[in-house]
Amino acid sequence: MPVPVPELGSYNYVEETKENLDWADLVTVDLSQLSTPEGKRAQADILISALKERGFFYVKNFNISQERVNKQFALGKAFYDLPQEEKDVFTVKGIERGNYNGYVNNKRIIEEKTGLRSQVEVYNIPKFNGDFEHHHPAIIDEHLQEVEEFSRSLHSEVLDPLFVLLALALQLPEDYFTNIHQYSLKSEDHLRYMKYNKFTPEQNKLIENWVHGHTDLGSFTLLFRQPVAALQIRYPSTNEWKWVKPQDATLTVNACDALQSLTAGYVKSTIHRVAVPPKDQQHVDRLGLLYFSRPHNDISLSTIQGSPVLQREGYTQNEFEASGNPVPTMEEWTFAKQKWQRTGYEKSDHKTAQILPGWKEKIYA
């Protein structure tokens, strides 16, 4: 007898914090301004300034309705509302090898003195381009076409325009980055529903951060607005930690490791963390909707040749090249870092472990 599929309800956002936090000063890229060369140039200037100085920025007018976004949040909530044994069926197989598509409930220790463990759950959905199998619980299967359309829209409506602007800023052909981020070709992109289960007030007093400082491993990460304040970024110039404020009708976007390697550090992969939320939001769970963009698996992370900007500014060698070690492909980099992130975190040398020849990863405060 078929198992009944839960009805997908609406998604209600919690109220924003009333606390006066030390918010980051982030700029906004407006994708409605790209219809003219002048508009493109202006937005490219805004983008590259943000990437060099902050690493994080907002994007508005990205042509995806709030109704579609709300539907994805509702799907994420419906998944996490399933009984634990149903979620466990979709646990990632091969996590020790760096695999990550599916469900992860990795109870790593986040507070060494007390032994408190993470309460973060993750569900990753890969591309719909024929390279990946799709096995999902019924609540997601029932809406899989919408999930695919949403994922593809993030490429065509958000990522492709951002990659065009980045190419313009580096004085490269407009299609330089879109050519290495084609949806039809194999890459480890994925849509993520991410739930930060709340701690008790007593536990929160013992915790410095729900997720320690880190960088993302791909090109751009897209984070949809959710009002529980917790995301903090570290300014590259001053090392100050700042809160990221939820902005209506925007995406929060950050640059990641692959772009830093491709530009030899001209674009910064910004360190960020998930702090304990303000007291007036500690009583609720925090649900995230994210998309992780990555170059094709076979792309070498060598410094881009042919950019007058990188040549002029002296960004001609990334850390692999400068050390004389082999430059990894995106696939090699992805699985090396994913393996490090998901396993071995209780070993004494994990915080500064070498994951590839010439590269030590680091966990930040």
What does this structure look like?
- This protein has a single domain, classed as Sandwich (Jelly Rolls), CATH 2.60.120.330.
- A hairpin with a 6-residue loop joins β10 and β11 (241-243).
- The termini are far apart.
- By secondary structure, the protein is an alpha+beta fold.
- The longest helix has 26 residues, at 144-169.
- 29% of the residues lie in helices and 19% in strands.
- Strands 1-2-12-9-14-7-6-3 form an eight-stranded mixed sheet. It has a four-stranded antiparallel sheet with strand order 8-13-10-11, with no helix packed on it.
- α1 crosses α5 (144-169).
- It has eleven helices and 16 strands.
Q: What are the defining features of this structure?
A:
8-stranded mixed β-sheet; Jelly Rolls; 29% helix; single chain; alpha+beta; 365 residues; 4-stranded antiparallel β-sheet; 11 helices
Write the layout of secondary structure elements.
Blueprint: E1 28-30, H1 37-53, E2 56-60, H2 66-80, H3 84-88, E3 102-104, E4 109-111, E5 116-117, E6 120-126, H4 138-141, H5 144-169, H6 176-179, E7 190-196, H7 201-204, E8 209-214, E9 220-224, E10 231-234, E11 241-243, E12 250-255, H8 257-262, E13 272-275, E14 286-292, H9 308-313, H10 319-323, H11 330-342, E15 354-356, E16 359-360
Parallel strand pairs: 1-2
Antiparallel strand pairs: 2-12, 3-6, 4-5, 6-7, 7-14, 8-13, 9-12, 9-14, 10-11, 10-13, 15-16
